[in-house]
Write a structure and sequence with these properties.
By secondary structure, the protein is an alpha/beta fold. The chain has 14 helices and 13 strands. The protein has two domains: 207 residues, Glycogen Phosphorylase B (Rossmann fold); 154 residues, Glycogen Phosphorylase B (Rossmann fold, 3-Layer(aba) Sandwich), CATH 3.40.50.
Length: 390
Amino acid sequence: MNVSVFTIGRFHHFDLGRQILRLGHSLSLFTSNPRARVDSDLWPHVKTRARYRIPFAIGNRLGLASSLYWLDEVLLRDLGAWLERSLDTEWTDIFHGLDGTGPRAGRSVKKSGKLWICDRGSSHILAQREILMHEHNFWGVPPPKSSPDRLERCVAEYEEADAITVPSQFARRSFLQHGIADEKVFVCPYGVDLSEFQPDVKRDNTFRVIHVGQITTRKGIGYLLRAVEPLVKNQRVELWLVGEIDPLIRPLLDQYSSIFEYKGICPRRDLWQLYTQSSVLVLASVEEGLALVQAQAMACGLPVIATTNTGAEDLFTDGVEGFIVPIRSPEAIREKLQWLMDNSEQRDQMARAALERVKSIGGWNRYGERVESVYKELAIRHGLSVHGVS
């Protein structure tokens, strides 16, 4: 099969590209990452468009994201037009593109009688918007500005694409709740690079909670802080926060500045050093598709406490490799942390089970094979003559 993949940044799509090649198919990868930010093994297959990506990324690092939403819109519109011009619809059998750039390229692919698959890494954009608006109102944080045009484009993509791939059952349910047909939405859980994440000896006896990822209302950071505050004050635990801080949430962090240690933004290749010195990963997110940090932590031998809205159910079993708790419940998080502290032998059993579970996933190979099976099923369903499908 000839597969064209589009992504704005890295996300899981570079790993998807490798899997497409590993399984013997041909790849054309389109991204707004500059070539220097693309893994060298993918260079022969990549086309880049970094015109607006670089200034937008610089603005984000300077804490100007909320003021640059208009540049985000310019970026997406430019990418949509570039993708339509650059995509070879005669060569392409399947176009698998991240949502948000608009349906222009997808429509061209469908017009040529080929398959268009929309890839969504989170819940349905309208479900996401509803959850996040509630959170920003609850915490008194100004909501991020966004373009109504983007909402309309994404919804159009969901309606017009031949299929939608999502990473978790949580994300899938959100699409069904917004009227997307059951047979159109496919769950393809992500993998983890086991060569980058491995266990190591913990150098102290401190019970340490770690959060890895953006520090935002979406990640439920306020609930995590409320959950651990009494435990930290009783000198029972330490809390490490790792990741980029949303400037809008700094006033909330300032209220709890004495109960956590901020470890900054850590390159992925170095994250294992922080995981292995921790006791448990806690992910209090109110909305995301399937947080990769869960599998990373498990590969380092950590149990995970995560909410129902993180894709945790697609990765581990509640009570075996960790705990799955309701969203917006610091009490539930605190209860599970207390249990882990009080039951060190069981915590160690969970840690071992977490490592074995993530090993059984087989890195990214299972993800690639699942995506390939979706491609073949859709080709047969639509009666397309595609290489490798009979």
